[in-house]
TrEMBL record:
Superkingdom, natural source: Bacteria
Keyword RNA-binding set for record: no
The protein's name in its UniProt record: LuxR family transcriptional regulator
Chain ranges of the HTH luxR-type domain: 140-205
Length: 210
């Protein structure tokens, strides 16, 4: 008897979800469900999901990071794929070597994505070469010892109770840049929330001061 494979796409774009729902069930013989960041967790608990597709064009990177961490902790047999992966923002902290099966840049068309998903169904990973090379160095970093100067400055600012906007103004950069520094720092020191980062900094800040 044929076993139904369940995929979930996490996106706020109804147009994209409807388009993929017209293609993927027939193309890959899967059942495609849709979810928002708020409903993904319950769907993973209620259904036997094998793959989660994140649409990064409609999901904040912080939300995607938190959801990826949830899958790593509680649903490690579930694989993840990122579509509309940004090129201009350093988002490689989202990629997990065990759970992430693929990443497709924003300029990838449906034919390229479909070809990649066929490879993923065969158990292969599909990650752009340049992203894969940068990940090799990223994965070899030793947590706090390899925090950048700017990441250390941002962690230090957390201890003063500063908001992202406050830190951005202090460092003369955009608020989105501060978010990126925080996400990368979170990944390196092994935390998943602002509160955990502050607790970590209170214990280890002597190691990250510049």
């Amino acid at each position: 008897m044929f076993k139904v494979i369940n995929w979930v796409i996490v996106s706020r774009s109804r147009l994209l979800v409807d388009l993929l729902d017209c293609r993927w069930p027939q193309e890959f013989l899967v059942k495609l469900a849709k979810a928002t960041p708020a409903t993904m967790s319950s769907q993973l608990s209620e259904q036997q999901i094998s793959l989660v597709v994140f649409d990064l064009a409609t999901i904040d990177l912080q939300q995607a990071y938190q959801l990826q961490r949830l899958i790593e902790r509680e649903h490690y047999v579930v694989k993840t794929v990122f579509i509309n992966f940004p090129k201009q923002v350093d988002a490689k902290f989202l990629i997990h070597p065990v759970t992430t099966s693929g990443a497709f840049y924003t300029d990838a068309d449906l034919a390229e994505i479909s070809s990649g998903f066929n490879e993923i169904l065969k158990g292969r990973s599909v990650i752009p070469n340049d992203l894969h090379k940068s990940l090799m160095g990223f994965e070899n970093e030793d947590e706090s010892e390899h925090l950048t100067i700017r990441e250390r400055e941002v962690l230090q600012a957390l201890l003063t109770g500063s908001t992202n906007l406050d830190i951005a103004n202090q460092l003369f950069v955009s608020e989105s840049t501060i978010k990126t520094h925080l996400y990368r720092a979170f990944r390196k020191i092994g935390v998943s929330s602002r509160g955990q980062a502050i607790a970590w900094a209170q214990t280890h800040m002597h190691e990250v001061r510049v």
